[in-house]
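ARCHIVE ENTRY
Sequence with per-residue tokens
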Amino acid sequence: TPVIMVSSLTHEGAKVTLDALDLGAVDYVPKPGSTFSTNILQLKNELVTKIHNAAGSQPHSIKLEFTPKSAIKRFSVKEERITKVIFIGASTGGPPAIQKILSSLDPNIPAPIVIAQHMPKAFTSAFATRLNTICRLKVKEACDGEQLQNSIAYICPGDNQTTVSRSLDGKCTFSVVSNTVQKDLFAPCINTLFFSAAKEFAHNAVGIILTGMGED
């Protein structure tokens, strides 16, 4: 049976939702508050659309392949010149796919990885924390003004737009701006991140589009 999680925007709700996606839930809808309010009617269109999409899906149980904490090895990150950056964009169905990819990567991969996953702020923070716990690769949420480093995967924070810039000496930094400025339909917006990637890195940017729906 296809399952859609509806959860309030709390860290605990985010964790439960991510657990459900690991176990085979097909999608989630963030609830506007932890208690019932008239704002819940705002979910109508999104929920109806996702129910129609879920009805046509064929979900299956996912065999979890977590690495025991005792087996996780952390490697020191060398401050090297950034020559290549990997950019990943994902929407509906993205979290399990991203988890699978990052879990299989060498922790010493010689490039930063920047991920735009359509999620609200509370979810992206919990998602980054979760991935950092189960992956050998270091995973964290990106911060405004932060310098990119090789061998780290960055999750773009929800409700914000993230771009990258590169100086002449090869240093790369994040710019994280509230979506109240740009007012895009999605925050983070994959297009916004990828356009900045193309501008700053050209053929040295690796772009990966995963699962999702819609125009972004």
